[in-house]
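Reopening this one. Same input as before:
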Amino acid sequence: MNLATAFSDCAQQHSRKTAIYFGEKEISYEALLAQSLAVGTWLESQLGVKPGDRVALWLKNCPEFAAAVFGILQADGVVVPINTFLKPPEVAYVLEDAGIDILICDGELGAHFPALAAGRPRLKMLTIEDFGSLPAGATGPAFGAGRTEADLAVIIYTSGTTGKPKGAMLSHGNLLHNVGSCRIVLSTVEDDSFAVILPLFHTYMMTVGIFLPFTMGGSIVLVKSLHPPRAMLQEIFSRRATILPAVPSFYRMLLAAPLPTPIPIRIFISGSAPLPMQTLREFEEKFKAPLIEGYGLSEASPVVSKNPLKGAHKAGSIGIPVAHVEMSVQDDQGKLLGEDEVGEICVRGGNVMMGYWNQPEETKKVFRNGWLLTGDVGYRDADGYYYITDRKKDMLIVNGINVYPREIEEVIYHFPGVKEAAVIGVPDPRRGEQPLAFAAAADGHTLDAQELLQFVRSKLADFKVPKKIILLPALPKNATGKIVKTELRKMAAAIDIP
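Same output, byte for byte:
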């Protein structure tokens, strides 16, 4: 069993059923399978994909995204989804690090291909505009059956405190395990339809928006645009979506939106960032439908815990472990801590990654005695519910996407005349958090904050660009010379940041 065969079996069983709703389009399982087989055959026969080869998927949400994912897997390749907000230099790093020679994208992002190929001459491109002209693909039980649950299926690039992205290696078994856990915790049935409003390149939407529905016979409502919100909601409701995964900012917006009744959605899911308790209380009071908060990370395929459908929904809690996954709270020596004792949240189970691509030392750092160290600090209450109180890793969450200060700091340090730089997170009512940068000039130099900000903007995705860069004569440091970010946070809290 692998993801390709699980999808193929499901598609053949539900061939006439609609798999994807996209605007006015209704794409059947039969059509989705045919397109994915055509993509897989082309990758293998014409572009030379061999078992285990990595194929990049740099693509905005569209029906072809799912066909590309399963096409790569049917060719026994490895899917490497790339954040569509990244700039070409950031994409080039992923291509080089993963040894990628084939890029699947659309015509718009394909305009960057010459720049990417300049640094990687072997790179080939397949655009989704070409999918319709591909010849019919291979069929039969052999195609796509060449991988086992132990084989690598997906590499999700997630930034680290070193500033360089790391590729979390997820096997077919890791993802199938997490799909199984999600089916149990969400009590999914074949009639369920998942509203997809978040980017499919995100590890959560890969699992819950592609692998889960398309291996169980469900459907997805792939929203064409989030704007205007009224039209987006009408699309979701008219297609009778039953499960809606989103981020907290979406639910704050939903509270203020006029909605039709009754609402067809039976489960609302919040993830990627902490859900304000007030939002949860107001939402469930207004809509009389469960809004369940969960927790996960790319290294765990990614779902780890959720508030249960049946049982208490505890405001502020990330819930209890999903089926067949274990959680614990440990101190820095690996001692298991008891209820209400604060330590690092750790995870183990069949969903936990194989490791980081080509980074054995980084892999060792996040495993201890069979447990994955999440870097998140929290505790477990007497009922077995988990809570996150802080992030051990110096990470921000902007619009549900992880942003690591070190990566931004590294870019700032490349600007001429910068001596010191530090980035912290500040609250943002729309995005949850926003980076705020501090910098100091080297002796004999002067800095212009706007010029520095423009430099950063040219190097990083827009969501990583600081809200503002504050210039100081020197950054606060401790006795060992380390920049003290707690002092910068106090400084940020005391000033007005527009």
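So the earlier flakiness isn't reproducible anymore. For the record, DSSP finds 16 helices and 26 strands in the chain.
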